[in-house]
Amino acid sequence: MKGNARRHRGFVLVSVLWMSVLLIGFLALISQNARTNAGAAMAITANRVDDLAIQSAVNMIRKGMIDWRMLGGEFDIEAARKAILAQKDWPDRLDFAVIPNSSKINLRQLPPGGMRSILENRKNVDAGEIDGLIQAWTDWVDADDHEMPLGAEHDYYAAEGLNNMPSNRAFQVPAELLFVRGYREALRDIDVNEVFTIYGEHQGVDFGSASRNTLRLIPGMTEETVEMILKTRKTRDLSKRSELSLLLDAAVFLEVQSWILESSTDSIFTIAVFTKSPDTPEYAYMEDIEFDPFWTSAKTLSVKPMTSYGAY
Q1: Which domain holds residue 87?
Q2: In the Cβ-directed half-sphere of 163, how many Cα atoms lie within 13 Å?
Q3: Residues 41, 252: Cα–Cα separation, whole Å
Q4: I want to staple 150 with a disulfide (CB 3.0 to 4.6 A). Which of 62, 79, 135, 157 is the partner?
Q5: Could you read off the pLDDT of 154-186 as tens digits, one per residue?
Q6: Is residue 134 domain-resident?
Q7: The pTM is what?
Q8: What is the spatial distance between Cα 19 and Cα 263, in angstroms, rounded to a whole number?
Q9: In this structure, is residue 243 part of a structural domain?
Q10: Cβ atoms 169, 139 nearer than 8 A
């Protein structure tokens, strides 16, 4: 009988200890979850605050650009930028840039010969592949499903098990170019969203605002010429052909002149908002916007919450 009593007391003791362990573990789990939830709530709140600051900045930029344009005269983006940043309600931690749409190569207006020149200028593209690349590009955007001799239509992409098929229309976004057979490899080190656009009707590029990578992509440009343009345009207006003809070596100018934008009356811009820093930002919140002909309002064409900024 005494043995049974001792066994019973032992069982009760073990049960109590086990319940204590479970209780301690449960309380620890609650505490950990509370800390995790608090951390998540703080992160969400911080992100929400950042989102509100970015949207406030974008609205101020839109209004500031309209107000500056209403002053008349030549539209000076940098002067407008400084005026907007000087406003007392501007979010302290943020900076921004306004990038003209004409600073990018217009993918919809680029003729086959222009794309051929770009590909011929690429060191990683074999000369024997270029005809096939051009025909694949043509097959992607033309209205029919008839495959060119070296091209690629629906049957090719289906056989490869690919989901993205030729759209038989103009490119809808620059990244669509990477779905065309061979272009992901041909442009493997290029951010197509940085150098190409599908908005507007411009032919050529504004050398006064084009990014470093856009200038590098233009046939005939050397690294030395790119650096010279980036440095010189800080003090001179290189959006004018006459200024470029004076700056560039004659041989270089002859080779790139067909890529120089004749004239620009931009109403389409990319607004890039990023954290204020002495260094060039790596990523930014971006919106492509288009102002109406009278510059009274702007519509949003696309939104890229976090995208590569590029070097300007």
Answers
A1: 2-92
A2: 0
A3: 57
A4: 135
A5: 999 999 998 899 999 999 999 999 999 999 999
A6: yes
A7: 0.81
A8: 81
A9: no
A10: no
